[in-house]
């Protein structure tokens, strides 16, 4: 639909002109067929390098659905039990403690793998200066970032075990909070499979789907396609070169830490193959990567009532959604702050990558840009509303 592509392009161009973003691209598919594509702006403003269809973007938290799919694959093979205890695979999770007003108290019970999948583990991210758990997590990732360039960089399993030694924000299962659960899940998958997490993803998903530009680093021959990251300041957009959550900004070499929560880079067309596989019930190009029942389990789960209450009160913008298996899932479209459909699922990333699958509408939308502290922005919602009003 040329009309929709033109509308999306105009929205992107306006965002670039207003310095909301440096550059972006967006892709929309309906019933497995491309309906609209648009791009605008720059992947590198200094070099005047356009943001193209094959531009590589850091996914950050849009890595999480891939990690969830890996766990689902092991479930259907009988190799991963969501009810199993994390400490059975990672010794750092023995004798966990919970932060409290008078110091640490022992966790009432061990953490289960399903609590990693649903963010009900008690693990958190840094950034909250009022939370001991968050402060300690911030310190750990500062250490990880400092050691990124060296030979003593911490590995996937080492970081997961270190997280297990930190005080939890709450007893496992008692509440909901977004955090490092997916990083720990990636380490659990690595232990179960006996191969590096990235190798497992490449063998089971990236190679079969033809996702040749997706991985935990960007090889030298593709570095020219990796978009620069920008941040908003009082003086407009400026280049951001920092590393975050143990992920190197330049992504030039295979990392010791293959972050299941934030580590992948990819292109719009590559991630579309993964999203389309899920929307097709696990099938792609005549092959069956996941069983249909597995995909239904992954994309139709819900939080327990008390966990759902915390999500709705604590995360602005997720009204009308539940969260399970590292996905946001629409349960009540009338409560959402943008046009949605019941059963729609997906997630976004720290730098602005976004995807949504709507099984009822047979519709997929994918968006990438590289803006510090972005997540789901006003631009994201405006673009999605334009798509959903036209196609749903």
UniProtKB/TrEMBL annotation:
Phylogenetic lineage: Bacteria, Bacillati, Bacillota, Clostridia, Lachnospirales
Protein name in the entry: CubicO group peptidase (Beta-lactamase class C family)
One Pfam assignment: Beta-lactamase
Residue ranges constituting the Beta-lactamase-related domain according to the UniProt record: 11-373
PANTHER family in alphabetical order: BETA-LACTAMASE FAMILY PROTEIN (AFU_ORTHOLOGUE AFUA_5G07500) (PTHR43283:SF3), BETA-LACTAMASE-RELATED (PTHR43283)
InterPro entries, alphabetized: Beta-lactam-related, Beta-lactam/transpept-like, Diverse_Enzym_Activities
């Amino acid at each position: 639909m040329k009309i929709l592509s033109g509308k999306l392009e105009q929205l992107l161009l306006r965002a670039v002109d207003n310095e909301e973003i440096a550059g972006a691209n967006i892709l929309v598919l309906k019933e497995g067929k491309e309906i609209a594509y648009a791009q605008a702006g720059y992947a590198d403003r200094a070099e005047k390098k356009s943001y193209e269809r094959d531009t590589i973007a850091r996914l950050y938290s849009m890595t999480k659905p891939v990690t969830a799919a890996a766990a689902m694959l092991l479930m259907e093979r009988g190799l991963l039990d969501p009810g199993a205890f994390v400490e059975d695979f990672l010794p750092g999770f023995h004798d966990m403690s919970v932060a409290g007003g008078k110091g640490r108290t022992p966790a009432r019970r061990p953490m289960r793998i399903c609590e990693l999948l649903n963010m009900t583990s008690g693990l958190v991210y840094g950034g909250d200066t009022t939370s001991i758990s968050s402060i300690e997590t911030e310190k750990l990732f500062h250490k990880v970032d400092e050691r990124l360039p060296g030979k003593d960089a911490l590995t996937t399993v080492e970081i997961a075990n270190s997280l297990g030694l930190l005080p939890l924000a709450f007893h496992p299962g008692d509440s909901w909070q977004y955090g490092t659960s997916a990083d720990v899940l990636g380490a659990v998958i690595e232990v179960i499979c006996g191969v590096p997490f990235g190798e497992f993803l490449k063998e089971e998903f990236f190679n079969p789907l033809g996702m040749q530009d997706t991985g935990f680093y960007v090889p030298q021959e593709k570095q020219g396609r990796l978009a620069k990251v920008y941040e908003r300041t009082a003086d407009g957009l400026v280049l951001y070169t920092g590393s975050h959550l143990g992920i190197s900004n330049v992504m030039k070499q295979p990392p010791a830490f293959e972050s299941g929560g934030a580590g992948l880079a990819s292109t719009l067309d590559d991630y579309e193959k993964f999203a389309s596989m899920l929307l097709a019930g696990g099938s792609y190009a005549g092959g069956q990567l996941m069983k249909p029942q597995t995909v239904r389990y992954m994309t139709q789960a819900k939080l327990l009532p008390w966990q759902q209450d915390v999500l709705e009160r604590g995360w602005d913008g997720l009204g009308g959604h539940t969260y399970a298996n590292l996905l946001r899932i629409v349960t009540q479209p009338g409560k959402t702050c943008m046009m949605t459909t019941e059963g729609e699922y997906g997630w976004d990333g720290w730098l602005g990558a976004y995807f949504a699958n709507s099984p009822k509408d047979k519709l997929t939308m994918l968006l990438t840009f590289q803006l510090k502290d972005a997540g789901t922005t006003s631009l994201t919602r405006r673009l999605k509303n334009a798509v959903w009003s036209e196609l749903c």
